[in-house]
Design a protein that fits this description.
Two copies of one chain form a homodimer. Chain A is mainly α. Chain A contains five helices and two strands, in the order H-H-H-H-E-E-H. Chain A has a single domain, classed as Arc Repressor Mutant, subunit A, CATH 1.10.10. Helices cover 56% and strands 11% of the residues of chain A. In chain A, helix 3 packs across helix 4. The first copy, chain A, is globular. Chain A binds a DNA duplex through helix 4.
DNA sequence: AATATTAATCGTAATATTGCAATGAATAGA
DNA sequence: TCTATTCATTGCAATATTACGATTAATATT
């Protein structure tokens, strides 16, 4: 055990959970915020901004890249990372859609 | 190691990460969707709907309760769960705010 | 009272995540 | 070429999460 039983759920449910998981760490939130604010960035300056080791940052960047939220291009010895606008918009819409249908409930509990 | 270094990040960043973590499992997504759809409270029928063991569902419910997304009241031998509308709205707004500022970028990468 | 039902909790096992030191690969500049 | 810089990757240890059987506590039914 210990492994998520993805086969029990719909594709959408697994997808949304995966999206949320990508955001489920303050370092990744912070990285995204830095990238949004500065519009571009490299790994080195992130190490300075956040207090984590270079290897750790690199790993978080890898995860964000894997889910497509960011993209990076090599630029000499450094790497330039930035937000993937398309994925960003998709995330925005996915979460908005999920939370859209407000249960104007009869507060049964 | 293995523990998240929350002290390196702002309160907001940790908060948003915690919110995302609450959604970072398809079972919890599914539970929330059932609660939204049925609007009236579902009691223990969640165990039937999803294919997970009772103990597992109970654990997920506990996590959702801990972050305040759902609330439950005891009703005889069963428990009645439903969405917490206030928290739901807050989540909606938090995520919308986070994804709001689209980087109308100059696509530097 | 005895039994059934419901759901929380405990204990355990399997797996995933987080973090970092060490190492490796690639380019830039001396 | 040699060295410095930058970032990815590997390997490891610590911690967290997921899942479930077994047990427990509580109310409902007989």
């Amino acid at each position: 055990m210990g492994a998520t039983k993805t086969d029990l759920f719909t594709k959408k449910q697994n997808e949304l959970a995966a999206m949320a998981k990508a955001l489920a760490h303050p370092a990744r939130i912070a990285i995204l915020q830095v990238l949004v604010k500065t519009n571009a960035c490299v790994c080195g300056s992130l190490v300075d901004e956040l207090g984590l080791a270079q290897a750790t940052i690199s790993q978080h960047l890898k995860e964000l890249k894997q889910v497509g939220l960011i993209q990076g291009t090599i630029e000499g010895t450094s790497v330039c990372y930035c937000i993937n606008p398309k994925a960003w918009l998709q995330y925005k819409e996915f979460f908005a859609m999920f939370f859209k249908e407000l249960p104007e409930n009869k507060s049964c509990c």
